[in-house]
From TrEMBL:
It comes from Pseudomonas bharatica CSV86. InterPro entries: DUF7946 (IPR057706), DUF7947 (IPR057707). It comes from the Bacteria. Residues 230-296 form the DUF7947 domain. Residues 15-205 form the DUF7946 domain. This is Uncharacterized protein. It holds the Pfam family DUF7947.
Length: 298
């Protein structure tokens, strides 16, 4: 049996869980196991896509293995690495690692954005095309992918535009599982943390990704709450009347300040007073569906 030191590792993705009980360096074991299983499938799927520009069938056996390194002291994190099952793949040489990490993170970030109503295929294709001109290693990876797909380098953009929507659909079940702890054991999950391609998945994004409905996560903005109608200080769930909205809106306070005595949210509830907050909106069919409140603005 081969040891881990003999396996050629092509890429590494740090995944960090933050907030809630993970701040105590704890996480629900069943949620964590589902998250790792989903992350492993997602990472292998997107790694396979980046190397071949092909989207495999839902139950296809991929020729890659995903390993986990030990967490670093003082954090709750998983360090996933990708390796070829046969341990023989020339593009897994160290010289290509940075290029493959970059490509996987960009494609994974696009998939996350697409599943939360914000993906832009043409923008991603342009970014990849420009980077390929500047990076000989990335250009080699993509040229190999096109060769595998019986294409030509000049067909890169067309191939990406054709296949990326199928990749999003294929990746959704795995991403759903990967986000299992978000909103339960933790407030957020970060992929490729500490890099320029960091992917943040907050409770708003996780809810949209796990929903069967088409939800769109908007950018964080300021909102005026005319009234806090109901509030559960343990879960953060609330019902609010928002300035400019005719109906009450469901929300969730994800601000750690909610756990403090005399916090502004409980005060607004008790005094029936208005307050200004910073929050991330989630829309359904163009209408405000849920508000994730992260900060009370004094």
């Amino acid at each position: 049996m081969e040891s881990i030191h003999q396996i050629k590792l092509a890429s590494e993705m740090p995944v960090t869980y933050t907030g809630r009980i993970t701040d105590q360096h704890l996480i629900d074991a069943s949620q964590f196991s589902r998250s790792l299983a989903g992350m492993s499938r997602l990472y292998s799927l997107i790694g396979h896509y980046c190397l071949t520009l092909e989207v495999p069938a839902p139950r296809a056996q991929l020729p890659f293995q995903c390993f986990s390194r030990p967490s670093k002291e003082g954090s709750y994190a998983a360090y996933l690495t990708l390796a070829h099952v046969a341990n023989e793949y020339q593009l897994f040489a160290d010289v290509y690692k940075d290029a493959l990490d970059w490509l996987i993170s960009k494609v994974m970030g696009f998939v996350k954005d697409a599943l939360t109503g914000n993906g832009n295929v043409k923008e991603l294709v342009e970014v990849i095309s420009q980077q390929a001109k500047a990076s000989a290693e990335l250009n080699t990876l993509l040229a190999n992918s096109l060769s595998t797909a019986h294409g030509d380098v000049v067909k890169l953009q067309e191939k990406l535009i054709e296949t990326l929507p199928h990749l999003v659909s294929a990746a959704k079940p795995a991403y759903r599982s990967a986000t299992t702890p978000v909103g339960k054991s933790c407030n957020a999950m970060v992929q490729f943390g500490g890099t320029s391609e960091e992917i943040l998945i907050s409770e708003a994004e996780a809810m949209a990704m796990r929903s069967d409905a088409d939800l769109e996560v908007g950018a964080a903005a300021e909102f005026v709450l005319e009234r806090m109608v109901a509030l559960n200080v343990n879960t953060g769930l609330c019902r609010v009347k928002i300035e400019g909205e005719s109906s009450l809106v469901s929300g969730q306070v994800v601000d750690i300040e909610l756990s403090m005595p005399n916090n502004p949210y409980s005060k607004a509830l008790n005094e029936h007073s208005a307050m200004r907050v910073r929050a991330k909106p989630v829309f359904k069919d163009g209408a405000l569906y849920r508000l994730f409140i992260s900060e009370a603005i004094q």
